[in-house]
Design brief:
The chain has about 290 residues and is α+β, with helices and mostly antiparallel strands. It folds into 2 domains: about 90 residues, Phosphorylase Kinase, domain 1, CATH 3.30.200.20; about 190 residues, Aminoglycoside 3'-phosphotransferase, Chain: A, domain 2 (Alpha-Beta Complex), CATH 3.90.1200. About 50% of the residues lie in helices and about 15% in strands. The protein contains 11 helices and 10 strands. The strands form 3 sheets. The protein has a 5-stranded antiparallel beta sheet, with helices on both faces. It has a 3-stranded antiparallel beta sheet with strand order 6-8-9, with helices on one face. It has a two-stranded antiparallel ribbon with strand order 7-10. Strand 4 and strand 5 form a beta hairpin. The longest helix has 20 residues. It is globular, with a radius of gyration of 20 Å.
């Protein structure tokens, strides 16, 4: 973990005119350490050298998307000459956790579905030229599934029951057949459209954050995280979605949603900021065990 004061010193060195009373240090992200000043400015610091270039591509992509996306998204206005970190003005809102969704009125839920559908539609309509210009990688499903399966056998299987192993093995056969065998239309995807990255303010979606995992891939990925709010909400968003549809898209999105806890369980043994217990609890819930 990088010392918080070291990061604050970096900000001060590059932006001596900035003043703040309070700072918040967030270290539980997978790719970035984050410093928030007075709930006003977010600074992101890559955890690895490879992420530095990715952050600049993300910043430039978001600048281009700002003219295409209706919802507020991060716009990096603090980019120092060394480009080893960057900052943007806070987008106001609370994380759109499932418990907050349940408290919304019917009208507010419909409005949330409408706004998310428009966001996904606009994002997926991004020209391929921008995808190439900002070095957005293509999603490699065969490689991803192969790596998760190998790591599951090595780290997860020894810690779970034979019954759970059998369920995961059957699941891998299903998702490999569906994801590898199917060749969907590829679009720019957020790929991390989870409750933590969807913001809600006064009962309305107020913005989308964290585009660091953007890929060129299956549009189903951007519906996967919406299963956290239940199938009715997923279908409501999908009905309003204006991108190219296919009759297997929602099925694939559900499989990706179920893959999540297996990925978390394996990642907990690879140095990522998650725990096996967290992943296993999600696994039992998503597989109805």
């Amino acid at each position: 973990m990088v010392d918080k004061q070291l990061l604050l010193n970096k900000i001060t060195d590059e932006y001596p005119e900035l003043r703040w009373k309070e700072s918040k240090y967030i270290t539980n992200g997978w790719d970035y350490d984050i410093v928030v000043l007075d709930d006003r400015i977010v600074f992101r610091f890559p955890k690895g050298q490879l992420r530095v270039g990715n952050l600049m591509d993300e910043a430039n992509l978001l600048m281009a998307l700002g003219e295409r996306i209706s919802l507020p998204i991060p716009q990096y206005t603090f980019i120092p000459p060394r480009r080893d970190f960057a900052g943007y003005s806070v987008i106001k809102g609370e994380q759109f956790k499932p418990w907050r969704y349940k408290k919304l009125s019917g009208t507010e839920k419909a409005d949330a579905a409408k706004k998310l559908a428009l966001f996904i539609t606009e994002l997926h309509a991004t020209p391929t030229s921008l995808v190439k210009r900002y070095h957005i990688e293509a999603k490699d499903e065969p490689k991803l599934l192969r790596e998760i399966r190998v790591n599951a056998k090595r780290y997860v299987y020894p810690r779970i029951s034979h019954y759970s192993r059998a369920i995961i093995e059957d699941f891998f056969k299903t998702i490999e057949e569906e994801m590898v065998g199917h060749k969907p239309n590829r679009v720019l995807i957020h790929q991390d459209l989870l409750p933590d990255n969807i913001l809600l303010r006064s009962g309305s979606i107020s913005g989308i954050i964290d585009f660091s995992d953007c890929k060129h891939g299956d549009p189903a990925y951007d519906f996967a995280g919406l299963w956290n709010y239940g199938p009715k909400f997923v279908r409501s968003v999908y009905r309003r979605y204006g991108g190219k549809k296919d009759n297997r898209l929602l099925y694939r999105s559900k499989l990706i949603y179920q893959l999540g806890p297996i990925f978390i369980m394996t990642s907990s043994f690879l140095g990522y900021p998650c725990t096996f217990k967290q992943g296993y609890r999600m696994f039992k819930k998503r597989f109805l065990l």
